[in-house]
Amino acid sequence: MNAPSFTARTALSRRHFLRAAGAGIALPLLECMRPSFLRAAEAASLTSPRRLLAIHVPLGMMPQFFFPAPLSTDAPPSGDPLPPRSSPYLDLLSEHRGHFTSFSGLSHPGVDGNHHAGQCFLTGAPHPGQPSFRNSISLDQFAAERIGLENRFPSLSLSVRNGDHYTDSLAVSRSGVVLPSQQSPKRLYRSLFVAGTPEEKAATLRRIQAGGSVLDLVMDKAARLEKNVAPDDRARLDQYFQSVRELENRLQRSIDWENRPKPSIPYPEPKDISDANLVLEKSKLMFDMIRLALQSDSSRVITLSLSTFSVVPHVDGVKNETHGLTHHGNEPEKVAELRKIEEAQMKTFSVFLQSLRETPETSGTLLDHTQVLYGSCLGNANSHSNQNLPIILAGGGFAHRGHLAFRGKAEGDDTPLANLFVTMLQRLGIETDKFASSRGTLAGLQA
Amino acid sequence: MSPSALLPRLALLLTLPLGAAFPRPTHAAPHAAFFEQHCADCHDADTQKGGLDLSSLAEDFSNPKNFSTWVKIHKAVSSGEMPPKKKTRPPEEQRSAFLSQLDASLLHADESRVAQSGRIRMRRMTRAEYENTLADLLALPRLHIQPMLPSDGSVSGYEKIGDGLDLSPAHLAAYAEAAEKALQEATATRSTPPPVFKRRIYPAGLFKFGGNLLQGQFVLLKDKQPDPALPVRGGFEDKTGHVGDAGPDLEERKALWKQNEGAKSQSAVGLLNPNLAGYEAAMNVAPVYSGMYRMRLSIWGFHWDQGKPVSCEKPQAAVLRAHEEGKQQEGGRLLATFSAPSLQSQEGEITAWIDAHESIVFDPVSVPWRGLRVGQVAGRAAKHTGPGVALDWFEIEGPIHASWPPESHRRLFGDLPIRPFAESPETIPPTRSKVYATAGYLPAFPQDIPASERTPPLESIHSNQPLEDARRLLSDFLPKAFRCQVLPKDVEPYLALVQKRLAAHDCFEDAMRRAYVAILTSPEFLFHPADPKAAPADHTASAADFPLASRLAYWLWNGPPDAELLEAAREGRLRKPEILRAQMDRLLADPKSERFIHDFANQWLNLSRVEETTPDKQLYPEYSFLLHEGMVAETKAFLRELLQHNLPVRALVQPQFAMLTQRLADHYGIPGIDGVHIRRVELPPGSLRGGLLTQASILKLTANGTTTTPVKRGVWVMDRLLNDPAPPPPPGVSQIDPDTRGATTVREQLDRHRSDPGCAACHAKIDPAGFALESFDPVGGFRSRYRSTGKGDEPPEKSSVPWSVRYKLGPEVDSSGALLDGQTFRGPADLNRILAENPARLASAFVAHLSRYATGTEVSYRDNALIEQLVASTASKEYRIRDLFYALAQSPLLFPR
């Protein structure tokens, strides 16, 4: 493996130690394994890895129930923390007060195109749906390149969905390609935790090696071809080259990982749920898998698209398909029905946050070391607006102090959502002061 | 562009040799004078209105950014948008002088660009192309690998355009995986064909049917009457509403049903509800082996009249679907739709590919869902009235193999024998998936599968001289895969790979498979070639024509060229107009051209978006599977009809015929059409239907399932039909908040929106067509009043339709308006007439769209001029659709000449 791994270079690798000890995964870090260069003050917060989880709900949340009512007095300057304020939806997270911040008035500048905007939730690339649209690297992939490489999965892209609607993965590569997402908790579980028999392992290794020789061959072909193409076409072939190289690196890594034992966990292999309308149950199962993946340090960067397109969720009082309901035309019955779905989703999210809080780590809990972004690129589904996005950030070691209100586009303030992303990246330990359309960090959010 | 402006350009194009068609103009000063006089007030360095500063705009047309700014300036002045109406208009001759000079400069610059680097750039295959290429190359009729591949980016709605077709590690990994799957499917793993399973199945004996019969969801029928072997279930007549499945009579029915075993193999079963959750009417058949299966069934329709079947006015309809293993409750894959004539058994037959372990399900799709199952409503079937479909029996036979090993296998391994695998420590055997049957389904494992088949012997391809055989097989495969001539040395790297894998103890089959994966992920396979650098001097023997064969095939088949096309290219014949035309006719007559119709409709018309919304059940209860299927079929059949009969382009909007199924004709209010098949129906003059704009599919995909907005439909008309897309809305504009409570109409809401002058300029252009189409609801039905869930009057159709009507009739629809040029219209018929009166405009827009699909390249300034030219050449024959295809194929847009 070529990628430098700072813990491995400076101290005994934790995984190496665990393998040698044959231990489970919840062992605390021993003093001798701690990277030697860390200052004592930092050490306490870095003993558990910093992680990122981003969740997108493509159909958004009804603004009248998500955002706290505006204060009667004039809003304070952008980014000032406000006294605790809540809303019907945020009330559902009340037990996690102090562990999350909600935001209003944030948008991705230039990101429009209603449902098309979903693919830009973590990229901020402007004007999806327009002929000339080019997507750009997503927050998770940017982070994974920097903090994910020493894990079995540098990043995981997951989705709960029924069919293809616009886009169902949040992860976008550096070249703007939407990366496929895993939908099956069972397959995810197997890749994370189930080791094959020695024969299966040997077969996998053979397959990887054979794949390697195929790559050698096509690389050579492409090199020869490149001599004969016009300069304008070379960029296309370059993408091919880079893809082959990256795949070769991945093959190397997978050979490495194939030889290392997988963590064992006290959680049985799940069965996939096939009824698409059981979307909440599917979400819960996927949340379990995410918790296990984070806890076992199989991956530090995860995205999840939780789509309710084309499903009639099993929620009391819900009879209609969710996307149809979001075009409620302000009819009270439909609004009430949709509210039931959105509240049920919020409760599921709350249970998930609880499970992260109940998972202890060396210092604090899994939630303390995991930034959980939850939100939508749709501000109002009924009007298809992509402004004033509903956003929550939980955990990750921030000093969460309730709701942060920004004035929003209508009042001449267009604080980019990407400002929040920069703050998040910095908190992950990544040195950057720019991401996508950011113009700085997000005022008012402190570590 | 006006015809008068076009003439001098045409003259230029026709008289000058290519590459010099647009001579370098002498210029500079006149632009400056024109700008100074008419534009400088707003677009100087100080004001820079709209971000445009003409004083600093370089006349460097080779810079792409500058070039596009100049194109915008040309468009703004030629359309009359600039200078703005309130400013002084430039004198006409000044204006036209400015325009023609700028036009010449732009043409020259664009032509130079093309002359230097060609028009069509290298691009990778789309995922549909990848699937079709593998399907044709490996002779796999129903290869399904698209879901394994990352989705393609889209440019102007087209997935074929190079700028949207990036390549990433995720792509390459997915290609390898998909290729592997296709190769597995293509390879025979046994020396003899798998055993054929053949069975006639009577539904009453099936597990799911039996339970439903007992509970009274289904009814048992004999000789078109209730079968006394299991009487129609009634009960609970004193109550209303939901009564559930249980009841004191259930034990008695069970006993009776046990007694009358014989009925299970004779009687028909009537279904009075559509198939809920996809598995109620399961045929309990799930093949053990993938392959082609022949399926037959006998069905009939009826009207259920409180306990007995009577004649129904119109034929009913049913479908067969295949559901992936473990996904019996999900949508499934449609195999075929059948008509069920009134009280008359009719046999239907299809032959279709079924994957191993896909299960077959029956669904009486013409029966509307009314919110409750028949057996759970008070009175049950004994008191129920409504349409129904009866199934007499179902037959299945397969897998059917015309030859063994199948053609797909021979494409990879020729006639090498398949023999028992010789175990040896030196060679690792190929892996085989286990043979198994799905529990509870036919064929049943112990009874229907001979013991020898349950653990078949390990067999594989045998070669006595592996490297010689490999060389022969690869030499045969490579030119087909790469779609061009291949030199003997090109085989070497693949042969070396085989050798390497054999040395690593792979068996022959596995080693060859690695080489095939390498071929199918090689750049020569994945990329479509760019334009040849220069037109070869010698036209008779030019390998340079292979790209033309590919372009034709990926256009008209959305797949690879076949041997005949490649041969014509190799011999240099393909560029001859009469040969090209004959080959196009051949391609379009081939069933593979259906892939083009399907894909082009999805990209040009956004037809795939018809799947994106589920109409509101309360507002549009008439929406059903059968209606949906009819909508999609109409649009595709319509394109096929235009192309097949070479109809004038005005038929796009005013064909005077429509392609209809029974359900669609009902939906449109056109009488006398029976049966599920799609057919051409002549319409009386003045009929609204038939053309694209009034097809239910287009009307649905431009609505959101609940409401319509003139903006969305107007944008579609401008963009897809007229190739004049509206600019995106400026950032931060407020959107309309749709309201279906019956208080306001979208027109009232939009009028408020449009009173803002910043919005009005664009919306005056976008909205009119959308206003005319307000006469159609989100599922394409005609309406004179909006449906509402709140206020309104009871609809008159309430008692006459088979579905339950819970909506009201709200405000009246106003579909009148005026176009930007001042022409007024009273509704959709006027709009169609106005559009049909300008066929040249329709034809140019159509060819621009067609060229994006056919050439995978955006339409540039110079391309527009070429399109005007080729469209003009079809004017004398009314701009016929197929003529436009021929003209595009012979223009330099497709291939440099």
Identify the notable features of this structure and list them briefly:
heterodimer, A: 447 residues, alpha/beta, seven-stranded mixed sheet, 13 helices, 7 strands, B: 897 residues, alpha+beta, eight-stranded antiparallel sheet, three-stranded antiparallel sheet, 30 helices, 12% strand, flat, disordered N terminus
Characterize the overall form of chain A.
Answer: globular
Rg over alpha carbons of chain A:
23 Å
- Average pLDDT metric of chain B: 89
Radius of gyration of chain B: 32 Å
Nearest-integer average pLDDT of chain A: 82
Structural class of chain B: alpha+beta
Beta fraction of the residues of chain B? Answer: 5-15%
Largest sheet of chain A: 7 strands, mixed
Strand-residue fraction of chain A? Answer: 5-15%
**Total strand segments of chain A:** 7
Helix content of chain B: 25-40%
| Beginning-to-end CA distance, first to last residue of chain A | 33 Å
Order of helices and strands of chain A: HHHEHHEHEHHHHEHHEEEH
Oligomeric grouping of the chains: heterodimer
- Biggest sheet strand order of chain A reads 3-4-1-5-6-2-7
Shape label of chain B: flat
* Largest interface, Cβ cutoff 8 Å: A-B, 76 and 78 residues
Helicity of chain A, as a percent range? 25-40%
Written description of the protein model:
The complex is a heterodimer of chains A (447) and B (897). Chain A has 447 residues and is of the alpha/beta class. Chain A has 13 helices and 7 strands. Chain A has helices at 6-10, 14-21, 40-46, 63-66, 88-91, 139-147, 185-193, 198-226, 231-258, 279-295, 322-326, 332-357, 417-427; strands at 51-56, 100-104, 156-160, 301-306, 370-375, 391-395, 402-405. In chain A, strands 3-4-1-5-6-2-7 form a 7-stranded mixed sheet, sandwiched between helices. In chain A, helix 7 (185-193) packs parallel to helix 10. The longest helix of chain A has 29 residues, at 198-226. The two termini of chain A are 33 Å apart. The model of chain A is unreliable at 1-45 (pLDDT under 50). Chain B has 897 residues and is α+β, with helices and mostly antiparallel strands. In chain B, 38% of the residues lie in helices and 12% in strands. In chain B, the strands form 7 sheets. In chain B, strands 2, 3, 4, 5, 6, 7, 10 and 12 form an 8-stranded antiparallel sheet that branches. Chain B has a 3-stranded antiparallel sheet with strand order 9-8-11, with no helix packed on it. A two-stranded antiparallel ribbon of chain B has the order 1-15. In chain B, strand 6 (291-305) and strand 7 form a beta hairpin. Chain B is flat, with a radius of gyration of 32 Å.
